[in-house]
Design goal:
Layout: H1 3-18, H2 23-35, H3 37-59, H4 63-71, H5 73-93, H6 110-122, H7 125-142, H8 147-173, H9 178-208
Helix pairs in contact: 1-8, 2-3, 2-8, 2-9, 3-6, 3-7, 3-8, 5-6, 5-9
Pfam family, one: LysE
Subcellular location: Cell membrane
Main location: membrane
Length: 209
């Protein structure tokens, strides 16, 4: 497999993993609506960087570390669920009072938003298992091509999705009234809490099984 073909396949992998709507997508949309496209893009790039990191582990065949992460998926999943609950609480409280004076997690600096979504994506067990499954099928192809092309492809595909999402949401930002923004914020908090609860239920069933 040539490098450009490997890049294209990896980009499709990055796109397919980033595109499904989940807590990261919701955070990206919310940050874009409330703080502008710069904040939304920071959130998206945090997720894309985490995807690229897992892609690098798979591409360079760091099997021991991948096995360690797979074995720790329960602890990572629990940490991710608690982090989601914290984000949900902070998001809900951010809608209280005039002008939403209460600070929310990751609010303000793009670096903080980037770091929050990066950590949340890394702690997602579904992301870990997806990359382990997908990259095991491409492992033979990497031997004949540079693994860097695969990593770059994953990042490009994931980042492209976030760029498109942020651009679309940014166009609607100024059409959302403060009252609607408050309901969007609270709805986002409830959905984030729902994602956290679902992740805890899945973890509990896995332990029970």
């Amino acid at each position: 497999m040539t490098n450009p073909i490997l890049f294209a396949k990896a980009a499709l992998i990055g796109l397919s993993i980033a595109a499904p709507v989940g807590p990261i997508g919701l955070l990206c949309i919310q940050r874009t609506l409330e703080q502008g496209p710069r904040a939304g893009l920071a959130a998206g790039l945090g997720a894309a960087s985490a995807d690229a990191l897992y892609g690098a582990l798979g591409a360079w065949g760091v099997s021991a570390l991948i096995a360690l992460l797979s074995g720790a998926r329960v602890a990572l999943g629990l940490g991710g669920a608690l982090f989601l609950l914290w984000l949900a609480w902070g998001t809900w409280r951010g809608g209280a009072g005039a002008g939403g004076a209460v600070a929310r997690p990751g609010r303000g600096r793009p670096l903080g938003i980037f770091a929050a979504t990066f950590a949340l994506t890394l702690a997602n067990p579904a992301t870990i298992l997806s990359f382990v499954a997908i990259f095991s099928t491409l492992a033979a192809a990497v031997g004949a091509a540079s693994p860097a092309w695969m990593v770059a492809g994953v990042f490009a595909g994931s980042a492209a999705w976030w760029l498109v999402l942020v651009a679309c949401v940014a166009r609607l930002r100024h059409a959302v009234s403060p009252a609607r923004m408050r309901w969007i914020r609270r709805g986002s908090a409830l959905v984030l809490g729902g994602f956290a609860a679902l992740q805890l239920v899945v973890l509990a069933r896995g332990l029970a099984g």
